[in-house]
Structures are given as C-alpha cells and as structure tokens.
Amino acid sequence: MQQSIPESALVRARTALGDFDLTVCSDGTYLLDGGAMFGVVPKTLWSQRIPADAENRILLGLNTVIVRTGRHTIAIETGIGNKQPPKLREIFQNQELLPRSLAAAGVRPEKVDIVINTHLHFDHCGWNTTLHPDGSVTPTFPNARYFAHRGEVEHGHLQLERDRVSYLSPNYDPLIDSGQMTLLDSAAFANAPDGQVEICPGIRAELFPGHTAQMMGIHIEPPRRAESRPSGSTPTPHACYIGDLLPTTHHLDITWVMGYDLDPLRCIEERKRFYTRAIPEQWLVLFTHDHDTPMARVGLNEKGKPVVLG
Ligand SMILES: [Zn+2]
User: Fold this and answer.
1) Which residues lie near ion ligand 1 (Cβ < 5 Å)?
2) Is the pTM for the entire model greater than 0.90?
3) Rounded CA gap, 282 and 298, in Å?
4) Which of 42, 43, 89, 148 is 20 to 30 Å from 19 at the Cα level?
5) Distance of CA 80 from the midpoint of ligand 1 (Å)
6) Distance 227 CA to ligand 1 centre (A)
7) CA pair distance 304, 167, nearest whole angstrom
8) pLDDT under 70: residue ranges of the chain
9) pLDDT score for 164
10) How far apart are CA 274 and CA 218, in angstroms?
11) Cα of 150 to ligand 1 centre, how many Å?
12) How far is the CA of 252 from the centre of ligand 1 (A)?
C-alpha cells in the first residue's frame, strides 16, 4: 500500500522566524473531491488553478508544522495517522508518512512537548495517537501536552449526520481520559487579551470560526529581544498556522470557501478579518493542505485580490 516517496519530499519547508525554527513536516498527500474543496466555485474556474483527476479529485497535503523555540518543541496538527480502515485509505490514497517525516527532520516524538490541533477533523489529529499491530492505541507523542478546543470534542461526540465521519474519537478520547489533553473553552478565549490564549511563550491560539464553530488559528511570534531588534521598520516576525480557514494557496479569494465549511458566510468574514492583519504585518501564512506551497506571505494584486507574494 505504501507508495514510494523520496526522502526529500518528507520535509516540505524550513525557515527561521526570529529565534524560532519552523519545519513543515508531512503525513504525505491525500485525494479529496475538488467540488467539495471549492464549494459553489465552478470547476471551470478552480480547475485552472489545481487540476482534477479522472474522478474529479485533487491532490492535497497534510502539513504538520514543527516549531522549535529553544525551550519547547511544538507540533501543530498531526495528519491522518494510521487508524484509517483499509477502505478509507483506498479512497484517500494517503501514505501515513508523518513518523518518517519527523525522523527526516530530526524530530524525535519523545522530544515533542506540545501538540496543538486547530480542530479535530480526522485529517488534522490522526497521529495524535498510534495504532499498534496488537490493536492498542497509544499517544504518538508520549511526553507532550495536547491542546484542542473543548467545543470540537463536544461536537465530535454528537456524531451529527452532516460531519460524523470527520470525527474519530480514538484521535482524542484516550488523551482526554488520561489527562494528557488540555481542552480550551470559549471562556478562556473571551477572557484572553485580543482573544488569544497563550499555549507557551510565543505560541497563541485564536478562534477563526466558520469551517467549524471553534476552529483555532495558531500564532507563532518569537518574543522580542531588545538587544537584537534592528532599528527601523522591520516588522516583528509573525507566522500563523491558519488551519482550514485557508486550506491552500488556491483558496485565498475570500469567497472561495469549501463545501465542507459549516458556516461559509462566517468563513468569508473571518478571512477578511485575518487579511486586515496578515497582509500589512507581512505574516508568514502556514497552509495546512497545500503540499506545494506550505508557507507564503500574502499581498494584494492590482485588482485588490489576495495573492501569494513571489
Ligand atoms: Zn477540517
């Protein structure tokens, strides 16, 4: 079942952000219906940006961003994992690569001390836990504290007709039962400065609802060091893992929201809110499902549309 993927494909990008090191690891790729990924956008338009195969599927990435701060090693998102039944693996054609990708990037799972899930859809938290041949499921990152939103867990447990297939409790229930997962609740965000809850110094979560009711974006902003600050107008380094608010660089147009989004109108408003900060402050945007362009800065073209800056 495993497709051969060159080792060079396992680490998708790497950059320094102030004193932090950012590495984009990957659980590989998977295939999803192009129509579902672009909602009401006609295929004649989206297929100009990303080609569909004979079954109308497009190739998407599964990016895990590793942030090394010097004190902490943080994993944001954990791909699809290895608990999918064979039938679903056949549909998605995913490769379960994250352990190999982490090894290629020099990240030992035992060293990861913080794991953050923007939301709990199966393709964002799959390697939170690992399925073993004897049927047991254990934490992939044994020494990590995991963070997710309480509302995501509660929504997943409802197993609603619309999206129950997206919520697989072995990805989070064992971690909640063992006390290894911290559930952030809405009150924490309501009471936090600027609505941003600090996970550790330089890493903060903020709600960007629409795709799900409590999806979080993750801000990465190394603390300032006064002595190393260049004078002048250099902006503070700031990256944001924006989860499924902007799944790929092909979704930058504010109205190109997904069929999967529970509240597409809210997504449009949240995208506008995101751009009002991300563009003027030159944030490095980290895209969860863009295999080719996992990180980019965004600007406006001559028509005022958001585009990747070259
Ligand atoms: Zn999702």
Assistant:
1) 121, 244
2) yes
3) 7
4) 148
5) 11
6) 41
7) 37
8) 1-5, 7-8, 226-234
9) 93
10) 12
11) 16
12) 16
Q: How far is the CA of 246 from the centre of ligand 1 (A)?
A: 10
What separation in Å is there between the alpha carbon of 285 and the centre of ligand 1?
A: 17
Q: What is the pLDDT of residue 1?
A: 47
State the distance from the centre of ligand 1 to the C-alpha of 16, rounded, in angstroms.
Answer: 27
Token pair of 100 as six digits = 């190999």
Query: For the chain, how are helix, strand and coil distributed in percent, rounded to 5?
Result: 30, 25, 45
Structure tokens at 282: 């030159």
Query: What is the structure's pLDDT at 4?
Result: 65
- Among 131, 201, 114, 121, which Cα is nearest to 153's? 121
Residue 231: predicted pLDDT: 56
Distance from Cα 157 to the centre of ligand 1, integer Å: 16
CA-wise closest residue to 23 among 78, 76, 70, 66? 66
CA of 2 to the centre of ligand 1 (A): 24
Q: Which residues of 228-260 are buried (b: 16+ CB within 10 A; e: fewer)?
A: eeeeeeeeebbbbbbbbbbbbbbbbbbebbbeb
Give Cβ neighbours of residue 133 (< 8 Å, ≥ 6 apart): none
